[in-house]
Amino acid sequence: MEASLKLFCLLGLFVLVSIAGGVQGAGECGKSSPDKEALKLAPCAEAAQNENAAVSDSCCLQVKSIGQNPSCLCAVMLSNTAKESGIKPEIAITIPKRCNIPNRPVGYKCGAYTLP
Known about the structure:
Layout (H helix, E strand, L loop, with lengths): L1 H23 L9 H6 L17 H10 L3 H8 L2 H5 L4 H4 L2 H4 L10 E2 L2 E2 L2
Antiparallel strand pairs: 1-2
């Protein structure tokens, strides 16, 4: 009886550790990192640095895709890759509105910024 209880506890601990390990792998952008997702926004580079620059259709398609998950979009805009690319978060957050994306996360807090 005592041996089965120990085995049951050990099995329970194994399941717990397995679940916790799986959760760690998923972040704001699922299994992909915000830095990797930021690379997909290369067509948005100029529009994310200059609020007067035209936003390309390819940029809007990528923003619409990533923007289905507002926390991912936010993490991408604030990622190291975006910063190293010269992206200005205060301008980048205006891209969903500039693309006229109807279901954009208006008012979503993204660090110190709010999506318009």
